């Protein structure tokens, strides 16, 4: 077998392979003899069919099978011989036979050579989130609002009140689709209606009728309303004030706190907040590490892998959106940039993992599973269920390895800490 390789691009290779024709003919003859022993052809007893008849009947088919198998085997052998690392399958073209050799040309992309550099220069800002008593109070207030009731009041409405209204909207005297409602509850200050609409409901009381002007934003989702001004005729049924439950042990029981009452609820709230903050911190650090890894290590990526990743991301999007008909799927082009980034990161992380012998040890896997199940009531049962499921473990172990690679990069990068309040970190201003 004679092999020549030509670089036709940064990652594209053109490999020509020559196979002696004797190898092909020998295999074809052997196959035809085997076929002849079992062939059933009218006019001949089984095993007694003349070789020329077998060749006439099956020769073309057998030859095609042999050529296909030899090309596949020769391609694999040639790749190994030349120390190539293909990325995706090849495009193969056969050449005309010259009676001495059979030749084909395989065009394919190879994986890039990855030589990591400047990993110690990756900048990482690690948030140190401080959870104060005011943050606990805010979260408890949020829980109280979840259990709030509403009580009718005989006064003008104010911020935080719920106003029950009928409304009919018109533009240039004509009603428009979606511009009317009956006994619609509007909580002032929650932004469920346009600002002008909510502003017009402040200071209103039961029985009031008024007309308010509302300016639709230029980027409003309904194009026929965008940028236009409407008039809404308002009829007020009632004004209701929010009644919050008291912070008592009974209140705590409503959130499945069976022992310890209100104080235990505060402990649980803090733990949940710490868990939420940790998840966001881990995500932020991961993003910084990934972006830094790419920035410090520019890399050409095989388009075959990018195209494959685009298909995968399109499928993921279809599943999220509940789409089964492929004709309704988001265009493949939408995923080009993200797919390229995924492939690039995958190649770089693979090298980080290999260079540092990073593996998913049993303790790390268990810790990851426990972290995943921490928010459930039956956390221990779920942990044991996951650990006992090989299919689940096949998904979790690569995640553990990747996270350990991220942790290694963080530890070896230029990390600095930044103190931030829980409120500002979880809900950044602006």
Number of domains: 3
What order do the helices and strands follow? EEHHEEEHEEEHEEHHHHHHHEH
CA radius of gyration:
35 Å
**Main beta-sheet strand count, sense and barrel state:** 5 strands, antiparallel
The tally of strands reads 11
Instruction: Determine the number of helices (DSSP H or I, runs of at least 4 residues).
Output: 12
Approximately how much helix is present in the residues? 40-55%
Low-confidence stretches: none
Quote the distance from N terminus to C terminus.
67 Å
Task: Please provide a written account of the structure.
The chain has 430 residues and is of the alpha+beta class. The protein has three domains: 2-109, Alpha-Beta Plaits (2-Layer Sandwich); 149-243, Chitinase A, domain 3, CATH 3.10.50; 261-426, Trigger factor, domain 2, CATH 1.10.3120. 46% of the residues lie in helices and 22% in strands. The strands form three sheets. Strands 6, 7, 8, 9 and 10 form a five-stranded antiparallel beta sheet that branches. Strands 1-2-4-3 form a four-stranded antiparallel beta sheet. Helix 6 crosses helix 11 (390-412). The longest helix has 36 residues, at 261-296. The radius of gyration is 35 Å and the shape is elongated. The model has no long low-confidence stretch (mean pLDDT 91).
């Amino acid at each position: 077998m004679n092999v020549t390789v030509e670089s036709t691009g940064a990652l594209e290779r053109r490999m020509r392979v020559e196979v002696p024709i004797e190898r092909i003919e020998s295999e074809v003859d052997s196959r035809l003899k085997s076929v002849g022993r079992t062939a059933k052809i009218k006019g001949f007893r089984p095993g007694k069919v003349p070789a020329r008849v077998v060749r006439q009947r099956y020769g073309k088919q057998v030859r095609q099978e042999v050529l296909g198998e030899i090309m596949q085997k020769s391609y694999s052998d040639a790749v190994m011989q030349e120390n190539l690392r293909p990325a995706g399958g090849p495009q193969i073209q056969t050449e005309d036979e010259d009676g001495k050799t059979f030749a084909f040309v395989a065009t394919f992309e190879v994986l890039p050579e990855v030589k990591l550099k400047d990993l110690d220069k990756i900048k990482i800002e690690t948030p140190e989130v401080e959870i104060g008593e005011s943050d606990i109070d805010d979260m408890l207030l949020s829980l109280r609002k979840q259990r709030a009731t509403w009580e009718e009041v005989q006064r003008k409405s104010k911020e935080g009140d719920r106003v029950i209204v009928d409304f009919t909207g018109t533009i240039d005297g004509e009603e428009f689709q979606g511009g009317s409602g009956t006994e619609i509850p509007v909580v002032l200050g929650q932004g469920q209606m346009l600002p002008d609409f909510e502003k017009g409901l402040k200071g209103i009381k039961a029985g009031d009728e008024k007309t308010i002007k509302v300016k639709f934003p230029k980027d409003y989702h309904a194009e026929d309303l965008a940028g236009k001004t409407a008039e809404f005729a308002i009829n007020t049924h009632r004004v209701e004030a929010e009644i919050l439950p008291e912070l008592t042990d009974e209140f705590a029981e409503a959130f499945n706190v069976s022992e310890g009452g209100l104080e235990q609820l505060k402990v649980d709230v803090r733990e949940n907040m710490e868990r939420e903050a940790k998840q966001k911190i881990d995500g932020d650090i991961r993003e910084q590490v990934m972006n830094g890894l790419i920035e410090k290590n520019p890399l050409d990526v095989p388009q075959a892998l990018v195209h494959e990743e685009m298909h995968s991301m399109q499928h993921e999007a279809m599943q999220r959106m509940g789409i089964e008909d492929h004709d309704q799927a988001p265009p493949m082009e939408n995923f080009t940039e993200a797919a390229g980034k995924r492939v690039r990161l995958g190649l770089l992380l693979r090298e980080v993992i290999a260079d540092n012998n990073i593996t998913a040890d049993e303790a790390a896997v268990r810790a990851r599973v426990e972290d995943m199940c921490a928010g459930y009531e039956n956390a221990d049962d779920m942990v044991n269920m996951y650990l006992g499921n090989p299919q689940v473990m096949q998904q979790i172990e690569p995640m553990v390895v990747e996270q350990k690679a991220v942790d290694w990069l963080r530890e070896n990068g230029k990390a600095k800490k930044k103190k931030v309040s829980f409120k500002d970190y979880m809900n950044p201003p602006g």
